[in-house]
Amino acid sequence: MTCRKFRTIQNVKMKNILLFASVVLLLASCSNSNQGELVGARKKSKPFYQPDPYGMIFIPQGSYTMGVGGEDLTYGQLHQPKTISVSGFFMDETEITNNEYREFVYWVRDSIARTLLGEVRPDEFLITENEKTGEIYDPPFLNWKEDIEWNSEDQDVRDVLEEMYLPDFERYFRRKEIDTRKLFYEYYWVDLQAAAKKEFVEGADFRNAGLANRPKGLENRSIYVRKEMINVYPDTLAWIHDYTYSFNDPLTEKYFWHPAYDHYPVVGVNWSQAKAFCVWRTEKLNSYLRAKKGEVSLAEFRLPTEAEWEWAARGGNHLNPYPWGGPYTRNDKGCFLANFKPIRGNYIADGGLRTVIVGHFPPNDWGLYDMAGNVAEWTNSAFDPSSYNFTWDMNPNYTYNAKENDPPVMKRKVIRGGSWKDIAYYLQVTTRAYEYQDTAKSYIGFRTIQPFLGRNKGDNPNKASRVYN
């Protein structure tokens, strides 16, 4: 009886093992073949979801008539209304402030200091190996966890950091001052415009037509990689050189670094510096996502195109001249709705003599502040009087990567929105103006955007339809 019971239990166990193995094989077979149906390449990663970036407002995609309803005081025919469509994106709700841009400047300063300190203290300020995988970093990464001892008693450290200070400044003014002329930010970018150009070369192999038009790229794709070295410190003398015969010395000395102006829009930043800020902000976010969450992000910050800026400034109001949706610069109580030059030069009638704190006036219907007045804003677009005619009607943009030795006319970049020193005409959403990309003004700032990539809710393998709402 005991032996028979034992054999019965043994047989049951064997049947269970065989049944379990059969189920595993069946599931593995289904998993590998997907039952012969087309379901797409499946990834183990989580479904993609693009969160709302901090301090940004979502601007939905839409279609509108760009340039309609604008006055043409100069008879320059710069508006030329045209119906266009624009993709969705996120935009900073205010202009970039002094405090925000100062974070960029401090990062560049500290990265230079850590690079110098890595020569005398490589164990502290350089990371040469991945502790988990053993991967060797060449070149090594900077160690941002180690504090910089600006007043170190170590003579080697003091000698290295001395390179960053202005010479003899302490002797005359009894304090040390960082030499801002050395604050350069280095970055690389791919010139897709150049890579997309078709070039005919006699004798080229045209069997692969998509690549045969770019023989240089086939040989060496690095020819499309551009290197930039940008000094990031704002031109604090902009207040003086813009208005020579005016006493602006106090602003020149304090506007950028004094805490009283923390939340005022940054000025004295040229187009190239604004572009470098966007690259740094992109890398700042992506570095965090890679290090902390192990995620690969496609987040990118950049300057808005001229079309994107106007679509955002309109706030959903298609035919009104101002961001707040009305034809007047005052509300029903007689209060001005922006910081500009009202009446016949009465700068303080709107409450501000020059720039004012960001977000002081009400936002437009999409929640964006100061899309008119306070400071004009750089866009990504190059300026051409006839660009409305030759650009496409979907996400139109005319760009030109001007070089240092190019003529000034090729360095013109579109600015929008008007500023504290402009009359109401320049506050209109359709008014086009320009400034040269290598100049910095006391009335031009910027804000950034992040393109909307979409949100994937994930797919359901048991769902028969390919459509996911």
Question: Characteristics of this structure?
Answer:
single chain, 469 residues, alpha+beta, paralog of FGE (formylglycine-generating enzyme), four-stranded mixed β-sheet, three-stranded antiparallel β-sheet, 13 strands, globular, disordered C terminus
Main beta sheet: 4 strands, mixed
Shape: globular
Determine the CATH topology of the domain at 55-97 and 234-450.
paralog of FGE (formylglycine-generating enzyme)
State the end-to-end CA separation. Answer: 64 Å
Could you estimate the helical fraction of the residues in percent? Answer: 25-40%
Order of helices and strands: HEEEEHHEEHHEHHHEHHHHEHEEEE
Q: Kindly estimate the percentage of residues that lie in beta strands according to DSSP.
A: 5-15%
Q: For the residues shown, what is the average pLDDT?
A: 84
Derived structural class: alpha+beta
Our Rg estimate from Cα atoms comes to 29 Å
Tell me the CATH architecture of the domain at 55-97 and 234-450: Alpha-Beta Complex
Name of the CATH homologous superfamily of the domain at 55-97 and 234-450: paralog of FGE (formylglycine-generating enzyme)
